[in-house]
Design a protein that fits this description.
The strands form 2 sheets. A 5-stranded mixed β-sheet has the order 2-3-4-5-6, covered by helices on one side. Helices cover 20% and strands 32% of the residues. The protein is α+β, with helices and mostly antiparallel strands. The chain has a domain of 126 residues. The protein is built from 4 helices and 7 strands; from the N terminus they run ββαβββββααα.
Length: 182
């Protein structure tokens, strides 16, 4: 397992069958789920499973098709309260033996983001973690929590409001005060 990977399940490509699919069913144990949760900033990861197959495609390429199922608990973006979510996503990757990485300073993203270079190893655990991170809700919000009324400030300071941030908010009061003094 790579030092920075929270979960790894490598499969040597030379050991993959060339005529039939290689089926897999990954369900990390509690310690592995805790490592994945810590890496992704989750409060809890009660369940995560990647089930599918790697099958040959052409002479030297492989296609991974799988289903990711997970139960995650993330902190609310407003209150930090736990927000549970369920994930059920299709996962597809194409591993190409003749894949060429784009080079240069100004590289555009390829249209097909499921394509990768075929190496000596396909890490199914890394696929699970990557697919989970891409499937997570971006801004989890606890029920009945509104961002509209949240005003925060350090202790002993007055919080800034939208009204105070308007550059001419106090101008009307100044004008009114100067007319009263005339």
């Amino acid at each position: 397992m790579a030092a920075d990977a929270p979960y790894s399940h490598p499969v040597r490509t030379a050991a993959l069958p060339q005529r039939k699919p290689h089926r897999f069913d990954l369900a990390p144990d509690a310690a592995e789920r805790a490592a994945i949760a810590a890496d992704l900033g989750l409060l809890d990861l009660p369940l995560v499973r990647l089930k599918g197959e790697l099958r040959p495609s052409g002479r030297r390429d492989f296609v991974l098709e799988a289903r990711l199922a997970a139960e995650v608990v993330q902190p609310c973006v407003v209150s930090l309260a736990p927000v549970p979510s369920q994930i059920d996503e299709a996962v597809t990757r194409r591993y190409l033996a003749d894949y060429v990485e784009p080079e240069g300073d100004d590289v555009e993203m390829p249209e097909d983001d499921t394509t990768e270079a075929l190496g000596e190893v396909i890490d199914l655990g890394a696929v699970l973690v990557e697919a989970l991170s891409l499937a997570l809700p971006l801004y989890p919000r606890a029920p009945d929590v509104s961002f509209d009324s949240l005003i925060a400030a350090e202790p002993g300071t007055e919080p800034l409001t939208d009204e105070k941030l308007r550059p001419f908010a106090g101008l009307a009061d100044l004008m009114k005060g100067s007319k009263e003094g005339e």
